[in-house]
Amino acid sequence: MRIMTVIGARPQFIKAGAVTRRIRERGDIEEILTHTGQHFDDNMSGVFFEELALPWPAYDLGISGGSHAVMTGRMLEALDPLLVDEAPDAVLVYGDTNSTLSAALAAAKRNLPVAHVEA
Predict the structure, then answer these.
(1) CA spacing 20 to 30 A to 10: which of 57, 68, 77, 119?
(2) What is the C-alpha to C-alpha distance for residues 10 and 91, in angstroms, rounded to an integer?
């Protein structure tokens, strides 16, 4: 099974720290970690990858700034071709951020199951 995990904001990194670790321990799920770039600097992003031992993302979309609508639209536009190219079996999202909305919508438009983790 292939899962694309889409994260982009600090709370998502924290949640993904626990879930990604378990996914990788299983060994029978391939996780494609994708960072939208919503939180991008070391204090809001990089430090969590280091301290939580999250693997560096396969994709870093580098999308930040602008209004919520603009950011969400840019993320949706960037995620759609990744879903086509990577062909995951499902998309995993966390919380309620622009990254979450854009990934869930992109997956739904491609008829992919969406798994949602909330605290």
Answers:
(1) 77
(2) 19
DSSP string, 19-79: HHHHHHHHSS-EEEEEE--SS-SIIIIIHHHHHTTPPPPSEE-----S-HHHHHHHHHHHH
Entry pTM: 0.90
52 vs 17: CA distance, rounded Å: 6
For the chain, first and last CA: distance in Å? 25
Instruction: Of 18, 24, 57, 21, give the one whose Cα is nearest residue 39.
Output: 57
32: amino acid identity, one letter: I
CA angle 56, 59, 68 (to 5 degrees): 110
pLDDT digits (tens, 9 = 90+) for 52-69: 778 889 999 989 888 889
